[in-house]
């Protein structure tokens, strides 16, 4: 990031390790400046050391230096100028170059910090020679080795920090995904239990009460008109009729709300209406008013389906359409419900971006997606297929078998 860019985001509170490192840098700078001031051969050198210390202290406590590249670059420029003045007056200022390396590497972008470190090392070498020191390998090795150590330390620490931040974000995302997955599992378990109870009530209590009512009606017709048992049978038949109506109300209450007011085809057609959202009558965050145009069609002769079939096909259509709205960037989608001699088929096709089906993994947003659709279909003895490729849209198809009883006009109805 260049120095003229916008301020950097506010940093999180320092953990113990960075706090200790910063404290050590302050102590190192203070110690070297005191050493330079004490060993300076002139009052001017002592004053220059004091000015450099004041500039350093001011920058350490100014918030803009910690939040803005521009302010940090200006402060480093002023600090470097005061250090060069001190370097001109006393050779003891040479040692202050080492903490300056760390400041430049920490506060400047890499493309600026490395040249700044090189210039600082060069200035230290030239000053040492200029003050009359004899040329020897140590004159060059000392500042250059210090610069190399500082570069390796800071860049290595930054790499470790980035890796730590990446892992922290991944852990936070994992925790969030696990919480969402747990919530989705609880919701799915609740829906599955409601559907199971609806099937059990329909297939046992409601059917049994219906049979009792029919038997009592037959017994009532077989009795003589003046039989003393006729009144008891009439009351028993009415009690069975009332309880049958109550059982049917339980079944309706446990059935998904989208299927309460009509057939599966009607629920799917409502799902495709603009503004309905990919979750039917539920208030979803991904409304179709901002998504693709969706068309619904029915093929073949519609028949009543068992309630588990209707629930599974509706949920699969909702999930597939939700994926289209959220991920496919499609302009058009089509839902087709096909009734055939031995099966009922649901197809959801879009013209979106497509994907590689083999590379799909559970979503970080907590959704089950394709695995859940496949599990629903296979739990009813059906098949589930996905055809897609990058740039070629997506087609989701689920087929459920139909027996002759399922195709009867009363299949799937209430008792």
Basic shape: elongated
Mean pLDDT score, rounded?
Answer: 75
Taking pLDDT < 50 over at least 5 consecutive residues as the criterion, the unreliable ranges are 1-15, 277-289, 363-368, 408-415
Spatial arrangement of strands, main beta sheet: 1-2-3-5-4
Number of helices: 11
How far from one another are the termini?
Answer: 72 Å
Structural class by sheet pairing and helices: alpha+beta
Largest sheet: 5 strands, mixed
What is the N-to-C order of secondary-structure elements (H for helix, E for strand)? HHHHHHHHHEHEEHEE
How much strand content do the residues show?
A: 5-15%
Radius of gyration: 39 Å
Helix percent reads 55-70%
Set out the fold topology:
Elements: H1 16-39, H2 43-61, H3 63-67, H4 69-89, H5 97-107, H6 110-130, H7 137-222, H8 230-254, H9 264-271, E1 293-299, H10 307-328, E2 332-339, E3 343-350, H11 370-379, E4 383-388, E5 394-401
Quick rundown:
The protein is 61% helix and 9% strand. With 415 residues, it is an alpha+beta fold.
Which short descriptors sum up this protein?
alpha+beta, 11 helices, 5 strands, 61% helix, disordered C terminus
Describe this structure in words.
By secondary structure, this protein is an alpha+beta fold. Helices cover 61% and strands 9% of the residues. It has helices at 16-39, 43-61, 63-67, 69-89, 97-107, 110-130, 137-222, 230-254, 264-271, 307-328, 370-379, and strands spanning 293-299, 332-339, 343-350, 383-388, 394-401. A hairpin with a 5-residue loop joins strand 4 and strand 5 (394-401). Helix 2 (43-61) packs antiparallel against helix 4 and helix 5 (97-107) packs parallel to helix 7 (137-222). The protein is elongated.
């Amino acid at each position: 990031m260049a120095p003229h860019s916008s301020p950097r985001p506010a940093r999180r509170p320092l953990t113990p390790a960075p706090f200790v490192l910063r404290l050590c840098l302050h102590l190192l700078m203070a110690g070297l400046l005191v050493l330079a001031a004490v060993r300076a051969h002139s009052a001017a050198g002592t004053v220059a050391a004091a000015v450099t210390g004041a500039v350093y202290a001011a920058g350490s406590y100014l918030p803009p230096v910690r939040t803005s590249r521009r302010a940090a670059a200006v402060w480093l420029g002023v600090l470097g100028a005061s250090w060069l003045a001190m370097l001109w007056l006393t050779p003891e200022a040479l040692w202050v170059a080492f903490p300056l390396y760390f400041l430049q590497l920490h506060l400047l972008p890499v493309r600026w910090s490395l040249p700044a470190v090189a210039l600082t090392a060069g200035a230290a070498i030239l000053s040492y020679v200029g003050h009359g020191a004899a040329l020897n390998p140590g004159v060059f090795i000392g500042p250059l080795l210090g610069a190399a150590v500082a570069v390796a330390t800071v860049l290595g620490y930054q790499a470790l920090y980035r890796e730590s931040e990446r892992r922290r974000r991944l852990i936070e995302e994992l925790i969030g995904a696990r919480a969402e997955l747990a919530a989705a599992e609880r919701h799915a378990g609740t829906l599955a239990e409601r559907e199971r109870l609806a099937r059990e009530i329909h297939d046992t209590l409601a059917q049994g009460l219906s049979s009792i009512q029919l038997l009592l009606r037959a017994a009532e017709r077989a009795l003589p008109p003046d039989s003393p048992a006729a009144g008891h049978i009439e009351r028993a038949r009415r009690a069975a009729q009332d309880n049958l109506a109550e059982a049917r109300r339980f079944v309706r209450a446990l059935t998904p709300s989208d299927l309460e007011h009509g057939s599966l085809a009607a629920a799917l057609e409502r799902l495709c209406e603009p503004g309905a959202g990919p979750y039917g009558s539920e208030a979803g965050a991904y409304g179709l008013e901002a998504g693709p145009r969706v068309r619904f069609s029915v093929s073949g002769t519609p028949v009543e389906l068992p309630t588990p079939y209707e629930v599974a096909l509706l949920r699969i259509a909702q999930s597939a359409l939700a994926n289209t709205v959220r991920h496919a960037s499609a302009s058009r989608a089509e839902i087709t419900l096909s009734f055939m001699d031995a099966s009922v088929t649901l197809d959801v096709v879009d013209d979106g971006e497509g994907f590689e089906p083999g590379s799909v993994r559970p979503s970080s947003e907590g959704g089950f997606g394709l695995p859940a659709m496949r599990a629903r279909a296979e739990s009813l003895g059906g098949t589930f297929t996905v055809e897609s490729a990058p740039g070629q849209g997506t087609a989701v198809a689920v087929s459920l078998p139909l027996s002759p009883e399922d195709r009867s006009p009363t299949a799937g109805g209430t008792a």
